Amino acid sequence: MRDKIFTQKNDLVNFTFDAQVAAVFDDMVKRSVPGYQTLIEMMGLLVKTYGQNNTNYYDLGTSTGAVSLALGLNNTHKNNKIIALDNSPDMVRKCQANLKGKITNFEVICCDIQDIYFDNASIVVLNLSLQFISPKVRQALIDKIYQGLNARGALISSEKIHFDNTQKQAEMANLHLDFKRANGYSELEIASKRQSLENILITDTSKTHLKRFKKAGFSQSFCYFQCLNFASFLAVK
After folding, report:
1. Is residue 50 a contact partner of residue 221, using CB atoms and an 8 Å limit?
2. What's the CATH number for 1-237?
């Protein structure tokens, strides 16, 4: 279904992942996030490389389940369970419907990802999720993920980022706007969505992400993909 949520002026203060958003989320994210399809496709390579037999894979902030589906369809290891979590009941229902009959041995849970206990994990994914969590508790979540990962387990995190250099930040922001325009969003839609996300989507720099992984104890971490102001990081325990 095509995203038309912001085609008219409304009184929406903060963006919420409700039924209206869940219905159009797949279209919204593809038209709003540069390189999104590549982010998902890379999960196939990463699960083959870093997944381990007899372990759990966690998809944190699963939304409609694209990451979980990619993990399940590309998994080459044995006896794995995919645990998908989201705090939106509407997203959880959409995720369950999307995964049913396509992959096996998965569980979709409606909860705050900060409340989950990570057990026997070889892969944990934060796909456009950390940016919606308060910056004050981001380090604590990364620390918790690190503790729950097995040796050589991997944390995969894709997020919108910003840049310390003001000129580069302005250029990237303008290119992102052009990307949205090229994908059919009007000036009203772009402005309305930006306003609704202003107080709930808080970005970090790449340097901040990498410092956070190092502080948690990961043996190596790096940005493996970037498209405009969206970046994907891999941190290995």
Report:
1. no
2. 3.40.50.150
DSSP 218: -
Short-list 65, 60, 59, 56, CA closest to 29:
65
Consecutive sets of 10 residues in the chain, 237 residues long: mean pLDDT of each? Answer: 62 70 87 95 96 98 97 98 97 96 96 93 97 96 98 98 97 96 87 80 97 98 98 98
pTM: 0.94
Residue 207 makes CB contacts below 8 A (sequence gap 6+) with: 164
Q: Are 204 and 162 in contact (CB under 8 A)?
A: yes
- Domain ranges (residues) in the chain: 1-237
Specify whether the CB–CB gap between 230 and 35 falls below 8 A.
yes
Residue linked to tokens 């389940």: 65
